[in-house]
Amino acid sequence: MDSIERDVVIVGAGASGLTAATELTKAGLTVAVLEARDRVGGRLWTDDIDGATLEIGGQWVSPDQDALIETLADLGLETYPRYRDGLNVYLGANGERRTFEGEIFPVAPATEREIVGLIERLDALVAEIDPEAPWKHPQAKELDEISFRRWLETQTDDEEARRNIGMFIAGAMLTKPAHAFSALQALLMAASAGSFSNLVDADFILDRRVKGGLQQVPLLLAQRLGDDVHLGSPVRTVRWDEEGVTAITDTLQVKARFAVLAVPPVLISRISYEPPLPRRQQQLHQHLSMGFVIKVHAVYETPFWREAGYSGTAFSPFELVHEAYDNSYHGDPRGTLVGFVSDEAADDVFRLSPEERKARILESLSHYYGEQALNPVVYYESDWGSEEWTRGAYAASFDMGGLARYGADLRKPVGPIHFSCSDMAGKGYQHVDGAIRVGRETAAAIVQTLAGAAR
């Protein structure tokens, strides 16, 4: 087995790990990045599927994502806006198809009042939440012991209003049923985006895309690091003490002063530690789990919905595909729709054969867009739950009570071992922006520790 020595070994070549590695090298430190996959990017993956360029993983850039926008500028990457001209579509409980513009769905006036009231109450609560430390809120324990679904039930009797508000957090973001996570976890999700209103505003949260795909970020960062990035190198064992670490793969051993584990929290326990991680870390990782979502890509000969005056944006908490958008790739004359099937609905369709699942999903899309949606020229499902080195999407979140109980220790270093990923971000939580922020902060903490030791 080959053996090398570095100042810092980084486990995981996603946006967070590569950002940390980049910042550490800027500070004059040596690094080695060990990546289990045969590619860099983690949950960012742009690929050619049957001649169509698809964003299999994350893809959006929002105007408040300063860290990501700075990185795009540094790497010389350009963005383009998501197509959004025309009417949006909403499907009610009875399947009635209604069109609308703006953020509020075309529901009955009484339901609209309830939705607006819920958004205002959530915005007021979110304003009290520090996304970097939601557990410090005076009512954190209380909010973490009630499910988001139950909290909504205490606020309104209007089921359609509850389902629509729940859809933005449960289906669209945490990709778990609203009974499976707490009100505090929901507030953190909203606070990480600046407000609940930002999550409701698709034109804000899903604003722009990157020419060439968002995976260009990790690809270009890795290019700068050169031979310090080692692919196909899953870390099996980490030996550590207060003096340093040794990360061991099947073919390479890296001795370093520090380690950065830049992987989803659910993968941290895949590594053997000698000695074991402290009890607190062992416990908190057992209270984190990934959500589950199918990202559906359907490419058509033309963006036929545009010709009919529609934006491609569609929502319904009553549909299998609860939201969908025009996701046409820059410069491609064809039209692409992207839709999402989350949590329990995703469980149900994965019990079907691939052919039956595809038929069910396309049928759901046709309820929004008409029969033309039934016949794409390219169809692809992003299933991150089956990815060996991810195991879910979009990010890990705590079970009931876990955020208030363990959140403060989520990123606390264990000796020379630091933790860095989008799942652990405050602002930008579960987004690339958050991954970059945490990568920068982790690198700065290591540099500061070394500076203190040198005094």
UniProtKB/TrEMBL annotation:
Its cofactor is FAD. InterPro entries: Amino_oxidase (IPR002937), FAD/NAD-bd_sf (IPR036188), Flavin_amine_oxidase (IPR001613), Flavin_MAO (IPR050703). Its EC number is 1.-.-.-. Gene3D superfamilies: FAD/NAD(P)-binding domain. Residues 16-446 form the Amine oxidase domain. Keywords: Oxidoreductase. It comes from the Bacteria. Pfam families: Amino_oxidase (PF01593). One of its GO terms (molecular function) is oxidoreductase activity. The keyword Oxidoreductase applies. Belongs to the flavin monoamine oxidase family. This is NAD(P)/FAD-dependent oxidoreductase.
